[in-house]
Structures are given as structure tokens and as C-alpha cells.
Amino acid sequence: MKRRIFSILFVLCLILCACGSQNPAGTEPETAFAAPSSSVPQTQASADPSETTAYGNEYVHVGGRDAVGENGVVATGREDATQIGIDILKAGGNAIDAAVAIGFALGVSEQQSSGIGGGGFMTVRFAKTGEVVFIDFRDVSGAAARLDLYEVLENGLVKDQANKIGALSVAVPGEVKGMLYALETYGTMDRRTVMQPAIDLAENGFEVSKITSRDIKDAYASISRFEATAAIYLDPDEMPWEMGTVITNQDLANSLRLIAEQGEEVFYKGEIAEKIVEAVQAEGGYLTLEDFANYEINVLEPVHGTYRGCDIYSSNLPSSGGSIIIEMLNILENFDVGAMDPESAEYFHLLSEVMKLGFADRSQYMGDPRYVDVPLAGIISKEYAKQQAARINMTKSGEYAAGDPWAFESESTTSYSILDKEGNMVTVTKTVDATFASALVAAGTGILLNDTLVDFSLDPESPNVLAANKRPLSSMSPTLVLKDGQPLLALGAPGMTRIITGVMQVITKVIDHGMDIQDAIDAVRMHDDFGTLILEKRVPDSVIEELKAMGHKLNTGEEWFTFPCVQACERKADGTLKGAADPRRDGKALGY
Question: Which of 44, 203, 567, 574 is the most interior residue, by most CB within 10 Å?
Fold first, then answer.
């Protein structure tokens, strides 16, 4: 009883702290606690406090994020996962082997953001053939999904956040099938070899970084609702684990071992599926074993465009990310961006207008192409971009309805990146959706389940409305950039719609301003999709006043955005490979 009262007081304290925070949250297991040891990989977030940025955000550490290599580079959101990727490359694996090993590892040490309870996208370029492939392993709603499962309140929100927390938010996860397809089709190593590092990480434990500790605290109210989840992420006193402690997850290790031994069948038709379905239905959800057995990935061509002579390959539908990034870049191509100061009011104004135009089209047209006709060719058309560019007033902030891409149709969303010495390129963005997702761990599996159904619209007129067996719209944008047919960039990011604008800004800073990839990631970031220009505060007051004079509604409350956290790899003109990671979270690049 005493511990319960203490827990309630802790929640109240978190709520009070969150009211003034500039860093809002994004988004019966056999567990144990162990003291930190030298055998546990250290994360960048454990850096000396003297490395903290001068801009005042205690979670941001600049410096020491990037790395170069002759044979390969890897950039991920956790140093332990990055090291696993490098070890796979050193052992003779290719970039796809490394990507799969990293994916399973991040599902252990960064489970609040991704894992085998979720899904995502992978964009791959093969050095020998030059072919680029897009693998869609996005989560899918069950056959019983329908709008009347939720009670929508007058303010438009769902009662008890049922589409965000708990069993009614869970879709059929796609990650296991997507990762194993990539490995078996394009990799060179066997399943057990590639998955063993993640199994070891779950059994031996991973260190809680400052950011992981923050994420647990931010999701405390949700985590504490579910016994199996609390058993992993709360200590014996029902309090969040603190930075520097080590979390193990034996149930997850066992689940991963079963997958390594038996393949995807055990996850979609075997005992893991049975345990997940049992856990979901016990909490009032509707997923069935048939839903799991029917899950399929999609292997597609990526969406393709160009920007100032560089080829851009990115995520196809049901992600809106790739096509909207290309639309935005196409619009920017009509302006001399390279001549602009990248921290000037002129530059921020132009990007704001371009973002608003792109997001207006995203809202109007984008959805699962099996359910809605999407004018994709029109959206990425250069001629359509010229029409969109002509709508921009360079002295005044505008409001934009969606354009008409149909007239041009006849012309035809954690993230990590890897480059290997052969020239293979892989970038992956995957997610369980919000931070700690549904907060529901399926008992006996150690698997945190997604809350992907919150990504659907509850508006019956929306192209992204909830329906049975449907993939929700996503912003995930794993993107490859080639110059003269050779690798230039592999990049992606987590962070909802900020993924699109974050990836776009890094691309233009490298191409238009000639920035080093780490400098482009570290640079001041902005975002605008709802009519408010959200700008990191690391700019002079004079620039902010200029933007206000143009009519922009500004939000400059954050010194650094929490998201998007871009992880990227670059091939320099001399052939040197460089990895770069975002200081906004636990990112770290390594090379060899």
C-alpha cells in the first residue's frame, strides 16, 4: 500500500513537471536488475556532462557522434546496436546482414521506440546491379477493425485514449517477417548468427541512458497499468529504472531465440502468436490468430525523384514520406537555396512555405493505395512543383489548400543507416509508434506491442480512415541519395511528420550548402505542418522578429527538437565513408 501511494505521488510529480517541460514525450517476464559493468556497452548519453551543449538542453550532447571508415560505416540510435552492426560487417556480412542484426538489437535496447512488436520500412540499394528495393513491413489492422470500436469525444479525442494505449491500439506487427525476408533474400549470413547479438543483449542487459530513463518516466502512467510491462521497466518498488542501471529481458531473449531457431512461423502461426493474441484479447482487443497468419509484407519499387542532379529514392505508399520529401525538394529546386544563409529569415520562410504546401497535399490525398486512389506521379512531378512554387510569396507567410496533382498524373517513418565497402546501401525506419507504444507487453514474450492504430484517422471522409486489414498512413522515410550513379547519402529519422521535414533539410544542406553530413544533422532544425513555424531557438532574436513581420506564427520554445533524430551515412568524393548521428537522442556512428 505504501509503495502504491508513492507511485501515485510520483505520477502527480511527473504531470506537474511535464506542464513546464520543453521536451514532451514523443511518443510475467523474467526480468532482473544488475549493476553496471564494463561488459555492458556504454551509450553516448552517458557522456560527461561537460559535453552537454551550450544551448541548455540536458539531453543533447554534441561532439563524438560521427565516424569514418574504409570498409563500412553504421549510424544508429544506440551505440550498442551500432557496434553490433560493425561486428557483423567485420565478420564478413554485408550491409543487409548488418541492418537485420541492428534491427533486432534496437528492439531490445530501444524497445520504447521499435521492436518485433512493431513494423516499418527498409530501402536497399545493391552495389552489383544498382537496383533499389523498398520493403514495406508496416503493421496492419485486424479483420475486425472498425470505427465504432472507439468512443470519440466532443473534442475529437478518443475516450480513455483507447486507440493509443492498450489492446485496442494494437495492429499485427510486421517487423519479424520484414527483417527475415530481407536477410533470407539479400543477406549472406544465417538467421542464428545475425540474431544472436540481440539475444545476448536481452539476456545480459543494456544500460539505461538518460534519455531512456526520461522515456520510462514520461510513460510511467501507461507502463504501470500492465503487469508484464511494469515488471520490465519498473524496479521492485514500482518506480522507473534510473540512468546507469541495467535492464535484462529474459522473456524477450527466449522469443528471439525461438525466432532464430524456427523462423517467422513461430511468430505468425506458432506459440508467440498465440501468446500475443491471448494478451490482446484479455485486455479487450480483437486481434486473432487468423490476423497473424494472414500478414504479408510488400516488396515494391521505391518512389524516385531527382534534386539538382542527384537521384532520390525513398519510401513508397503507405508511407507518405518519400513522395512528400520529393515534392518539397522539387519545389525548392525553383529557388536558389544555396545562395541563402541557412540560418536566415529568408531561408526559414521558404522552407516553411514549402512544408505547408507539401503537408496540405499529404492530408488531402495520401493513404493505403489498396483503399484510396493516390495521385503519386502528379505529386512528385517537376511541372506540378513549378506550379506549387509559384504560389509562394517570399515576403509573406501564406495559408495553402491542397494543390491539384491529378492534372500531372499522366506523366507517369527508430532509423539507422549502413554503407558497406562494396557500395551496398541500407536505411531502415521502424517503429512501435508512440514512445512505449500501447504500453502492453504480451505476458511470457517480453514483446512490447505497437499502438499503430492511432495513426489512422477516425474521420470517415479521410483517405486514411480506419478500416479492416489496412495499413495506416506513415511519415517514415528511409531515403537513399545517389550522385552520378554512386552512393552519396543513406538517411532516415523517427519523429512523426517531423521525419519528412528533418530528412528533407539534411538533404538540402548537404547538396545546396555543401555541409558535412554531421554538420547538416547538427544544424538548426525547423518544422511547419499545422500553420505554426516550429523553430529551434538557436537563432538570433532578429531572425525571429523578421519571421514574425512576415506573418509567421512561431513556436521557439525548444532549444533543440526532441525529434527527428537523423541517422545517416555519407560517401565522400574521395570514397571515404562517414557515419553521422543525431545529438538529439542516443545516436552514435562507428566505422572500420
Answer: 567
